Amino acid sequence: MSNLISKLGILPELQSFSLFEGFTDQQIELLCKDVTVKVTRHKESLFQFKEQAEHFYIILSGAYKLTRPTPNGEDSILHFAHTGDVIAAFIMAQPQPIYPITAISMGPSRALKIHRSNYIENWKNNGDLIFKIQNLLSTRMTSMQNQRALSKSPLQAKIASLLIDLIDKQPTTVDKITIPIPLTRKEIADSVGASVESIIRIMSEWSKKGLITTEDQNITIIKTDKIIELMNADY
Amino acid sequence: MSNLISKLGILPELQSFSLFEGFTDQQIELLCKDVTVKVTRHKESLFQFKEQAEHFYIILSGAYKLTRPTPNGEDSILHFAHTGDVIAAFIMAQPQPIYPITAISMGPSRALKIHRSNYIENWKNNGDLIFKIQNLLSTRMTSMQNQRALSKSPLQAKIASLLIDLIDKQPTTVDKITIPIPLTRKEIADSVGASVESIIRIMSEWSKKGLITTEDQNITIIKTDKIIELMNADY
DNA sequence: CGTAGCCTTGAAGGTGATCAATGTTTGTGG
DNA sequence: CCACAAACATTGATCACCTTCAAGGCTACG
Question: Which of A93, A216, A226, B235 has its CA 20 to 30 A from that of B215?
């Protein structure tokens, strides 16, 4: 018995994830049997698009962007995965899974690397766990569909939608919400399918109007209501 | 015991679906306990976006388009669901599920309507079945991601990609593949996020060049290789 | 101190949307 | 069975949003 998660000292972290809510320590120990903690540095990738998929991951800390190469050789960002997210789990169901995306670390991050065989042996027949994963996935899918519905909307609406989507967090404070992930303009561009320059032009405009502020790469939304208005703006 | 599927006479159909591959008649009977067959006419909807989701569906015959309203009041088409597809199954995992899409019948169609409680009682703990559903879903998701990666590509590439995606069928005959679903130009437009006029202009061009032909609403791809080339065309 | 990555601004040009008008097919009710 | 409405297809002209290209400034890091 190697690599017990209690030995790795990550049990407290795992317990805090909604994924393992209601599970006993022993159950978690079984589900995370023979795992390793993969530490990645900025821009380092967890796995590559089209690689053979032997493992899936749970994000322990930091964040990863899930990307896909485009015909132009650029990258399209499909999702930002945070702490507690599960990546590439649902493709484990395939007989010969291939990663449909690349996972790139944003800043230093840590992820739990779990082998496919574990998914098939221990995760597959755990109905409650599968449900949790399906919930995570359906949330992600709904968010993708929301974006899709904006394809004919002006670029402003797409950016607004992205920002709002990234703060599914506390609506506690009425104003001044900071986006939990530092984002470059290029990353925003790759998320909404636009050019960097266009992003800059629109966000500069917003800064001037006092809707947002950005310091370093942290974006703070000052007037949330105005941003939400822009989401539905019909030009 | 009402509504046995053997009584409804749809067992042979169900057996032919990859979803139930390897299951015994008794198992299928249990999984489809207390179901009804919903017959829909052209443009009739199975369920509506934002409705309370009490049921999920298996398509018996025909096809449905899965749509989502856009801010402009139009509809964005997210997926074309064929015979054998399962719809809205994975949102059953949520405590209070809401349909994230609308399902609209394309021509006369039939679908098996299954209650949520059945999913929780009989489907949830059937690991093999869950895997099949996850496979269906991951295929759909990958296809959505493919489309997403084309967001900066010219409209031609998007249309080409859509058409190719709709013939995941037999690569048997080298040429002349007819798309299994009759599509209006508007539906194509709503799928790729463009205007009807633009679709028409491009497809007329293709017709003139002899790449495709359309009669009624059935599109036949004549020169598949040329269409595939257009998918990656960088203007 | 130079390179690399990110941010910014300006000018020109193109793809595709919008608007408008008309033809064609389908379906429905008198 | 015809007439009218509704849905779909088509073509042209105009215009705006966004991309592309080009050039430059800023900061961090080896």
Answer: B235
